[in-house]
Structures are given as C-alpha cells and as structure tokens.
Amino acid sequence: MIDVNYIFQVELNKDRPREKWRDADRYSAKLQEAHQILWSKPLPNGELFTLEKISGKRLRHRSKLGEFILSSDRAVPSFYNKVSLQKMLPYLLEIDKDEAQSFWELSETIGGMAIWPAVKNNGNTINQNKCFGRNRTIIADRLDLTIECIRRYYSGIDSPLFSTFSRYADFFGLFETFKGYIDFFVFQDWVSDDYTSVKIAPPFDEFKSLPVPSTKDEYMKYRQCIMDLIRKRNQRIDRLYNTPSSSF
Questions:
Q1: Using CA atoms, how far apart are residues 216 and 164, in angstroms rounded to an integer?
Q2: How far out from the chain centre does Cα 48 lie?
Q3: Which of 74, 78, 75 is nearest to 223 (CA)?
Q4: What is the torsion angle, in degrees rounded to the nearest 10, for the CA atoms of residue 175, residue 177, residue 179 and residue 182?
Q5: pTM, whole model, 2 decimals?
Q6: How many CB atoms lie within 10 A of CB 3?
Q7: Could you tell me if residue 186 is left (phi over 0), alpha (psi between -120 and 50 degrees) or otherwise beta?
C-alpha cells in the first residue's frame, strides 16, 4: 500500500538532528518497499518485472531478461537548501521559508522519486552523471531534464546523458520505447499527450548552460511547474494502485 503523501526523508530522520540526517535513498526501508511494490509489474513485452529486496536498500530483478540491480533516486532538486547555490544566487535567501519547505517536502514524496541501475558499467552510474558535481552540472539533477534526455535517447538524439544511457542499453531496452518507459514509471503527466515532448520547467536553453533559476521570479516559475508535475504523478500513482493515502 502506497501513501503518496509520505515524506520519506522527513520520516526517516524525524528523531535525528538535521546535521545527522541519513539519505532516504540509501537508508529508508519504506522507500525501498514503495519502489518494489510500484515497479514489480509486467513490462511492455508482457514479461513480469519482479523486484526483490537485497542489501544496501537495493532491488534486484533476475530472470531470462537478465539481472538488474536498481537503487532509488530522490530526483527533484528544490535548490533552496544547497549552500553553494545560496552563495552564488543570493535571491534564494529571499524565498519564503514556507514556500521553500512545501516544495522540498513534496519533492520527497514518491512522485519525486526515480529508480536507476545501481552498478557502475564502464563509468559513473546514471544517478552520478546527472547530479551536481565536476563536469555534471548541465543536468543539475533535474528529473524533467533527465526525462528529456531519455526521450532523446530513444529517438537516437544526442544529449548530455546519451553516452551514459547507452552503457545501460539493456535496462532501457526493457521498456522498448519512450512511451513504454513513461507508462511503466507513471510519468504520463510529464510529457505531451502524444509522447513527443517533455514538459520542461524554466530555465532551459537546450543544455547550453546550468539550468538553475537565476532570479526569484524564475525560481517561483520552476517551483510551480515542478510541484504541479509531482502532484499529478502522485495522483496518478494513487489512482492506478488504488491505495488510500493513509494506508502506507
């Protein structure tokens, strides 16, 4: 049973001081269980993609399709709490704390989560290559831009993550097409009705520069767009799995 309002990071650390918080992706048994429930289901080819829990809060599928070790990704950055960005973008300190907190909390629900292959394959993992860090800022950890890169991958179009995705072709091959991937992971509200485009929040300039809001107004537009997408995904998950929000 999935509670789409459950805030994994907060609940995991509710009895710990903030400086000693643990990463829900790595330590939350509830998040691991939610991924297991949600993504153990038939693939587009009809084969059942069954996930089992293994150590380190990872999940494994093993069948004639191959072996896949997967781990969670808290995939939506609110930017607000990143100290390095606060120094670079002082307007972040002007954001109303309640507005910032509501965005962050929503991003920590299942609608803001993704799951990726967890084992390195001739280079960094997908999660590592989309995050902030050396030579990896062009995605800025944004889920909408990651989905755009996935769209381009299935279409054979280059993107900052194309070579990374190519190393995990067996994983993406499970879903056959971009539509197959989107439907499997319940991202229908993040794309157009015909699956030909991704709903991308501002700012975005075709991966030419760091896609982080540069003004307060731009931040609020980014916040509004991404919160709307997370809410819609949560609502769709709730409907599809018929799980009352008080039951997880």
A1: 33
A2: 23
A3: 78
A4: 40
A5: 0.93
A6: 19
A7: left
Query: Cα–Cα distance between 223 and 202 in angstroms, integer?
Result: 9
For helices 216-241 and 29-39, the axis angle rounded to 10 degrees is: 60
- Supply the DSSP string of 64-130, one letter for each residue: TTEEEEEEEEE-----TT-HHHHHH-GGGGGS-HHHHHHHHHHHTSGGGEEEEE-S-SSS--HHHHH
Percentage of the chain exceeding pLDDT 90:
78
Cβ atoms of 132 and 141 closer than 8 Å? yes
Nearest-angstrom CA–CA distance, 168 and 122: 10
- Find out whether the peptide bond into 203 is cis, omega within 30 degrees of 0: yes
Q: How many CB atoms lie within 10 A of CB 98?
A: 8
Spans of the chain, pLDDT less than 70: 133-136, 242-248
DSSP letters for 216-240: HHHHHHHHHHHHHHHHHHHHHHHHH
Residues in the chain: 248
196-248 tens-digit pLDDT: 999 999 999 999 998 999 999 999 999 999 999 999 999 999 999 865 543 44
- Token duo for residue 110: 């299942």
Which residue type, as a one-letter code, is found at position 194?
D
C-beta of residue 204 within 8 angstroms of C-beta of residue 81? no
Q: Where do the structural domains in the chain lie, given as residue ranges?
A: 8-241
